Amino acid sequence: MSKLTFICEVCGGLVQGPLISLDRRIEELTPSDPASQTPGSLFISSSESLHHYCSHSCWQTHEPEVAAILKLSTVYTASGLVTPCSRCGTLVQRDSPYVCYALTEILLEGEDPPIGHCVDDQDFAVLCNDCEPPGPLAESSEIRLDELTLA
């Protein structure tokens, strides 16, 4: 049986290291409770992989274009319970559902089929409900990541 290979959806290169996935997620953060020593948790009710990149350098090449398509004014927002919207700056209460664009680094191991292990996960953008309400990305949305320039 032949070995399964992955080709970068953006630059066409062979994925030889961790796969970088740009995901659109609907999230809700439960804060930690120091009194009961209960740790905080993140509930991801929906996650959609939008693009896969073959390397960090491939992602970094396309990051400005993705930020422009998503109309972001800031990226890599703070991970607190309240954080500014990456598009308009309005404060986002993360203990209610909100949209997050995240970068997930997936290490593929084994064959037939390979198993993916998440080795890193980072918020790229957090959006308020006015800029992008939680729920499926509408077909009519002006946010079109399929417009990315392929290298």
What does this structure look like?
The structure is a single chain. This protein is mainly beta. The chain has one domain. A hairpin with a 6-residue loop joins strand 3 and strand 4.
Can you give me a brief rundown of this structure?
The protein is mainly beta and 151 residues long. It is built from one helix and six strands. It has one helix spanning 56-69, and strands spanning 19-30, 41-53, 82-84, 91-93, 98-109, 115-127.
Give the arrangement of secondary structure elements.
Layout (H helix, E strand, L loop, with lengths): L18 E12 L10 E13 L2 H14 L12 E3 L6 E3 L4 E12 L5 E13 L24
Instruction: Please give the alpha-carbon distance between the first and last residues.
Output: 31 Å
**What is the makeup of the main sheet?**
4 strands, antiparallel
Mean pLDDT: 81
Contiguous uncertain segments of 5+ residues: none
Along the chain, the helix and strand elements come as EEHEEEE
Helix content: under 10%
Number of strands: 6
Strand content: 35-45%
Please indicate the count of domains.
1
* Main sheet: strand order: 2-1-5-6
Helix vs. strand class? mainly beta
Key terms:
single chain; 151 residues; mainly beta; 4-stranded antiparallel beta sheet; 9% helix
